[in-house]
Design brief:
Number of helices: 12
Order of helices and strands: HHEEEHEHEEEHHHHHHHH
Oligomer: single chain
Radius of gyration: 26 Å
Strand content: 5-15%
Helix content: 40-55%
Protein name: Transposase
Number of strands: 7
Strand order of the largest sheet: 1-2-3-4-7
Length: 294
């Protein structure tokens, strides 16, 4: 199943076609700066019923060099079948477009990135026919950007770096530098970056931190994500107040509340259960009795 981090890691190259120049510079590979970039169809399906799709396919045109085809693949885990598919993509693209292909693999997991970066040879040991050598961007070589000034220098690169470092110990500092830089950024520039980071973080713990930072630091932001964040905040506030109401009734009635009971009430996130406890708290002889029928 295609995940949101998978989509963000390659679609960012569609959103910001010049991003490859920044990534290649970070990775120490000297490619000429494209004078134009064209997003090409990503469907590599043959006439026979075998469907093959590269995640993102771009044509990069440079002023003093031959055009280049850039295939971007987002890879979430090790897959022994992938090298053969990537070799097929390269061969097919060269045949179809008569342009030299380049493969960039983007990963969030260091082990996957190191696996993807291996050279893979196809053919007999004595005479390999083809050697696959992808360029890989991941947590092992993308910059850890924690300075808002550095973020502003290249928002696209900073966004990809933040996504690839979703599990970094300093993820909070990385994401805070993003929202700090985005505060004074025009909304039409900030909005797609906010969405891409949210997508790219997926279900990692950093995703919840990003949502909170967006809600607090970027109050101007308006989208489905912003509404979700605000709805979640309202729901959390309603549940917290319901728990406080249960404890208030017990306190007014002079009933002792143990630490275990208090933690159970304040730790409950279900508003229906809290309403039930609220009704029982009016008559229950002890605090523990509000849980009696559960």
């Amino acid at each position: 199943m295609v995940s949101s981090p998978h989509e963000a890691m390659h679609r960012i190259f569609q959103q910001y076609p010049d991003l490859f120049s920044g990534v290649s510079e970070v990775l120490g590979i000297d490619f000429p700066t494209p004078t134009s970039v064209t997003v090409l169809p990503n469907d590599l399906t043959e006439t026979s019923p075998v469907e093959r799709r590269v995640d993102t396919l771009l044509r990069l045109d440079a002023e003093d060099d031959e055009p280049l085809l850039l295939a971007v693949e987002a890879q979430g885990r090790k897959d022994p079948d992938k090298p053969a598919s990537w070799a097929y993509y390269a061969s097919y693209l060269l045949t179809k477009y008569r342009l030299q292909p380049m493969l960039l693999v983007v990963c969030q997991d260091r082990a996957t990135a190191e696996w993807a970066a291996r050279e893979v040879s196809f053919g007999p040991r004595q005479w390999p026919l083809l050697t696959l050598r992808p360029l890989v961007a991941g947590p092992h070589n993308m910059p850890v950007i924690t300075d808002p000034a550095e973020v502003r220098k290249d928002f696209a690169l900073a966004t990809l770096a933040a996504i690839t470092h979703a599990t970094h110990p300093d993820a909070g500092v990385i994401l805070k530098s993003m929202t700090t830089a985005l505060r004074d950024t025009p909304q039409n520039i900030a909005d797609p970056i906010i969405e891409l980071v949210a997508q790219g973080l997926g279900k990692h713990p950093a995703a919840q931190l990003w949502r909170k930072l967006v809600a607090v630091d970027l109050s101007f932001y308006k989208s489905d994500l912003s509404e979700e964040i605000r709805d979640e905040g309202r729901a959390e506030g309603s549940v917290r107040r319901a728990a406080e109401d249960v404890l208030d009734i017990l306190e007014v009635r002079g009933i002792d509340v143990s630490e275990a009971v208090r933690e159970r009430i304040t730790g409950c996130g279900d508003s229906e259960i809290l309403r039930h406890w609220h009704r029982r708290a009016v008559m229950a002889p002890t605090a523990e009795d509000i849980f009696e029928d559960e």
